[in-house]
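Worked example 2:
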Amino acid sequence: MIEVFIQVMLPVLIVFALGYLAGRFFDFDNKTLSTLSLYLLTPALIFQSIYKYKNFFELTTLKMLGAITLIAVLIIAGVELAGKIFKLDKSTRVVLILTLMLSNSGNFGLPINQYAFGDEALLVASVLLVIYSFYTNTVGVIVAAADKSDIKQALLGSLKMPFFYVLVAALALNFFHVEIPAPLFKPIELIGLSAIPLNLLQLGFNLSKIRKLERLPLVFTASAIKLAVIPFGSYFLLMLLGLQGLDFKSTILQIAMPPAVYCSILAAHYDSDSELASSIVFVSTILSFISLSVLIYLLMGGSKNY
């Protein structure tokens, strides 16, 4: 397991730590980096991944979508039930649903999948990134905006994001087997791949701005559920759905990722408990270096595949 940590998690930890230190000691224009990532780098990564993934329109993708959908439904139901039992306020329930449902499948999930299982796993992980991005911009917005604003307007605002248009274009080209000339596709591929290190640096930068952790008992409970309980339950669900091989490994690995930083952004934007969201994201991210090492080791069958 130590070998897994060194070969897979340590490179990610180093880049993450550099971003964290840069955020603590330097005054970067994070808004410019976020805009660059949101409107250029990540869309390019999604486009080239969907375009290259030849199995997108097969049953496997539907199984992935079904698994994540069912998990999301169970999370929402579970949090609402726990909210009634423990008398959690609406704001707390919203934060718990967001942080348990939305995995950091981009900044964290892509490099870890690639280091653990190779370039083919990166393609599968990118498909899952698309699914999570869709849920973030639809279900995530609905959950966060409920009782706070016009949900229709919030969803229409999400549709202005380039993600949806890039997704439609990539799906159309993939479905009709349109060949993009290499001189045009290579720049897209190069820009897309640059999203991985930049997003990881940005993750460290964003978490460096968290100065205070709130409601630690609840934070550690939520982190344990996100990093251990949900992946454990997902294992049996994915087996039941018949996912196998790399598709199974990448899917459960993406599900086991810590919450996305975007959870705290949504919580803040719609006046939920953003401090609690940031605390869960921070603690889960740190603990995930251990939990993901264990999971990858188990997925490899306890062997050293390096």
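The longest helix spans residues 59-86. The chain has one domain: 2-299.
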